[in-house]
Amino acid sequence: MDYIINTMGSLWSQTVFSDILGNYKNFIMILVAFFFLYLAVKKEYEPLLLVPISFGMLLVNIYPPIMKDGGLLHYFFKLDEWAILPSLIFMGVGAMTDFGPLIANPKSFLLGAAAQFGIFAAYLGAMALGFSDKQAAAVSIIGGADGPTSIFLAGKLGQTALMGPIAVAAYSYMSLVPIIQPPIMKLLTTKKEREIKMEQLRPVSKLERILFPVIVTFVVCCLLPDTAPLVGMLMLGNLFKESGVVRQLTETASNAMMYIVVILLGTSVGATTSAEAFLNFDTLKIVALGLIAFAFGTAAGVIFGKIMCKATGGKVNPLIGSAGVSAVPMAARVSQKVGAEADPTNFLLMHAMGPNVAGVIGTAVAAGTFMAIFGV
What we know:
21 helices, mainly alpha, 0% strand
């Protein structure tokens, strides 16, 4: 009997149940993982991101060694730290993105820039809450609703300890764009403003489309060379698409490669959320600051849209300013949805895509600005 009891005890000690039962925090994080999985599967909130993130979160809280040196996801995470996966994500985004609306209406750059206000507001807020200057910069980039840039900047600034909460907060707010943005947009605009119909955008020539990624790369990378991994890969992917002569590269970057990278990045990001790393007061502050930054960015874009509306004699619908955050194309779709609620015949999607893709560039520029400030 003693042999059986000892054997069963030995087998029990080899399972993870003994560790989990002794740490209630693991249970909490497992429940959080199930909640994210519910949002992804049932509500279809950015499932391509939330499914791997939630499963990575589940894995690390069931079996923590999977994220330690020698564990499978440790090596995935190294690709995040080295800025490889965020840069490859940007290449895929570039290969899928149409910059035509931005080229046709360059004023969209101003709306994309205005929406970055939330980033710098969050930076000041993070400093006030006791974060160091580099920690505050890494946290504040959540306001751009851009997960890859958040990971990229946190790694460059040496804030890998905060990378998990920052990345999860950024991707969570990206997925919750349809819930967070509309109340802010409606609060800051009148029904008459939301009903404004904008003129059709002019056609964009193939030459303009080809020159755009080249010119943007040259200008931005000359001014902020630290942004080259992100902006360079974004524009390279777009050049694949617009050149029309490398269809195989375009298809690979926007499909197979993109999805492989999303799996690796999402799973490794989720695996950074161990109970010990995630369940602390700093995480709560990061999540709160991220929400404030995102709300401020949305509001700043809408307010600047209202200014442009007045300056153009009512030709700009302020709703497109909310798309200045870089959640592509979700934020542009939200602008379309809110505009259609005011007037079902209103079509704002293509106009909103201008600020939306400008926001991608703007968030990368904001990250490059922080890196230049801190001499990274």
